[in-house]
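Whether sequence alone determines local backbone shape is best considered at the level of individual chains. We regard such an encoding as a compact summary of how the chain folds. The sequence in question and its structure tokens are set out directly beneath this paragraph.
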Amino acid sequence: MATKTSDLLAAAAPRTVVVLQAITDDQLDLPTPCQDFTVRDLVNHVYDVVVNFQALAAKREVDWSAKTDHLTEGWRDRFAAETGRLVQAWADPAAEEGASPGMGLPQETIGLMGVIDLGVHGWDLARATGQPYQPAPEVTAAGHRFLDGMGPMGRQMGAFGPEVETGPDCTELDRLLGRAGRDPGWSR
């Protein structure tokens, strides 16, 4: 069975997996569009997102303060396997029902957080490592829906930087990145 969230995660995950699997060891210390995050830091964060959002689908609380270095032997394949588990976790219709006990937000909103994390951080990592990246259109649209409701709170909590102005002729992805506090023109 699938849910709206699992369908979005299934659209977002493979594109981010491709980016992470192509990151070479000599790129791990490069800067990223996420201020104060190296590629290594951001890969570890995205790995935490994928694992913790599996628990959030089951309405379990997670400890975001645990800082595990996931970049040990075989991390690229493990990340791919964990994203598959993430999609499966959100395929259970119960995952979208009610509110998250740890965050107090609707479960559908929690699921969209995972989608936007995969989409935006996929771009961050691709940009930092010189890879092409284009999220699925439905992922970009879901990111805009999420930011419509949660953008101000996310900025207040430090999850997003200040909005970056984008021009009227920019792409929907560039507009999403700007809304998420990214400069679409960022480069090393």
User: Anything to note?
Assistant: The chain has a mean pLDDT of 94. The chain has one domain: 4-137.
